[in-house]
Amino acid sequence: MRLFAAVDVPEDIRQEIAAWWAAACVHLPAGDWRDVAVRNWHVTLAFYGEVRGDEVDDLAEALADCAATASPLILRTGACGVFPNASRPRVFWGGVGSVDGAKDLAYLARCCRLAGHVTLRKHTAKEAPFRGHITLARALPDAAPLGGEVWQSLPDLPVLEWTVGAVSLYASQLRPQGPIYRLVEAFEFKGNHHVR
Length: 196
Prior knowledge:
By secondary structure, the chain is α+β, with helices and mostly antiparallel strands. The chain has a single domain, classed as Cyclic Phosphodiesterase, Chain: A, CATH 3.90.1140. The protein has four helices and nine strands; from the N terminus they run βαββαββαβαβββ. Strands 2-6-5-4-7 form a five-stranded antiparallel β-sheet, with helices on one face. It has a four-stranded antiparallel β-sheet with strand order 3-1-8-9. Strand 8 and strand 9 form a beta hairpin. The model has no long low-confidence stretch (mean pLDDT 92).
């Protein structure tokens, strides 16, 4: 099964971002983007790809160790952007970062990535540096570049905060109409200090 670790985005926060996204979409080239279902919005910490059934328990144990040392994080939305860049946009995202200690979310992501490296023996040297974000839409083939006039016309992403108290392990089933995510297990934070 295809697995990834993430922190969840509460329903009320997703709805506020969805309202912003609806207003922002009118400034993007028509027909170039396919929205990600709002129910699927999350902040990916680590993507593990295909994982054999006998490896899932080891991965879950390693993620539980990450959660055991972490304390709740306050997350805040930030700027929006695209991957890999505005001249070849493929993913439109809303930024997310930590309020308490700017690196805490990145450290949690690093711990989750290391959990995969150790238990699955997957070498992910080609992984992009972590950038906390919610994927809002994916570009269709031949999407137009997003020039400066597009960025200047976009409304600002609202500043929203929420507390995260767990890491979730999800299974992803790919379908033509969009993926289905199934929660495998959630690991509550049990530490009284931040992940380092």
